[in-house]
């Protein structure tokens, strides 16, 4: 071991260049797998925040499970009456929350900006677990009539009112005068929806502002302990009866989370595999360095053999050098990659990037394997050198 370490230390520049190739490859693998794992956790956390007892119904039919409906085709619309029928006729649905979504200008005095307008009911707060910064959420109003009231997202409220208390103040949404009744606590982006940058109005008001009668989707809260798949089929059958065909997609949170998690895991493996190619290139570099080292140290090999070293001992010396070189690169790369991930997480805390343990062990194993595989040829050549010829070649 000491002999191999001393040999590497005597050629520091060559050793560092060989290390660099392994380090770059390991950093790439660690960083990309951490990013993939972070994306998987981020997506699953987003869906988990909606709750495992919620079904989503959307217009359009997708025959594959767990997916979203295709854009093609002209499905029947989801309506407020659909929402009422589901809540009335399916006992295991304890809350049917209609959702409309559109964009409109939100203004106050000289300040104006475009925002997402979410039309819904009081149940939206419970299903999405929303907290209030001030004021109150939507009250119970007639589904068909709505009311000129609005709940502002935190960012919208700050931009329009700055330090002024918004509750009770008038604003215009899509040209309609409304009274602010509450401000949502900061939430950030969840499931692609940034409520901080949105406003929430009664569903009928939202439909009127969007100039349409159809809903974007329904959120259906299922009673605790109910069979989600059975309830899902009941919802599909009910809407089938109402529409005359199966033209809706109803998905569970578990199905979507499972599908997305599987997809992201596969993508992480693919990206890690591509990054690992650089380790192969680094291994070839180590092999070339070791071949040069063997040619430069022929007299040393001859002397060792003259002193009684066997072929096996010579082979192990050079093989150990290659393995040490590769493992050292793996350890340095692992530490550097982990540091890069920590810095990235500090900058973007919403993505919980952490290298998975399988990637850490894989990096160590691949580093060892690279040194062993690409160190065999140089070590074998050194072991086969004739001691007399080696000593003569060194003079």
Please give a structural write-up.
There is one protein chain. By secondary structure, the protein is an alpha+beta fold. The chain is 56% helix and 18% strand. It has two domains: 2-46 and 258-393, no CATH class; 76-246, no CATH class. A six-stranded mixed β-barrel has the order 2-3-10-5-7-6. A two-stranded antiparallel sheet has the order 8-9. It contains twelve helices and twelve strands. The protein is elongated and about 100 Å long. Strand 8 and strand 9 (193-194) form a beta hairpin. The chain has helices at residues 2-10, 12-50, 80-89, 123-128, 154-161, 203-210, 228-243, 253-296, 298-306, 311-347, 357-384, 387-393; strands at residues 54-59, 93-108, 111-120, 132-135, 149-152, 170-173, 176-184, 189-190, 193-194, 198-202, 217-222, 248-252. Helix 2 (12-50) crosses helix 10 (311-347), helix 8 packs parallel to helix 11 (357-384) and helix 9 packs across helix 12.
Q: Nutshell version of this structure?
A:
With 395 residues, this protein is an alpha+beta fold. Helices cover 56% and strands 18% of the residues. A six-stranded mixed barrel has the order 2-3-10-5-7-6. A two-stranded antiparallel sheet has the order 8-9.
Instruction: Please compute the radius of gyration using only Cα atoms.
Output: 32 Å
Helix tally? 12
Number of strands: 12
Placed side by side, the strands forming the largest sheet appear as 2-3-10-5-7-6
Describe the largest sheet.
Answer: 6 strands, mixed, barrel
Distance between the amino and carboxyl termini: 27 Å
| Share in β-strands | 15-25%
Q: Would you identify the regions where 5 or more consecutive residues have pLDDT less than 50?
A: 63-75
Helical amount among residues, as a percent range?
55-70%
Q: Tell me, what's the shape? A: elongated
Order of helices and strands: HHEHEEHEEHEEEEEHEHEHHHHH
In terms of structural class, how would the helical and strand content be classed? alpha+beta
Task: Compute the average pLDDT.
Answer: 80
Number of domains: 2
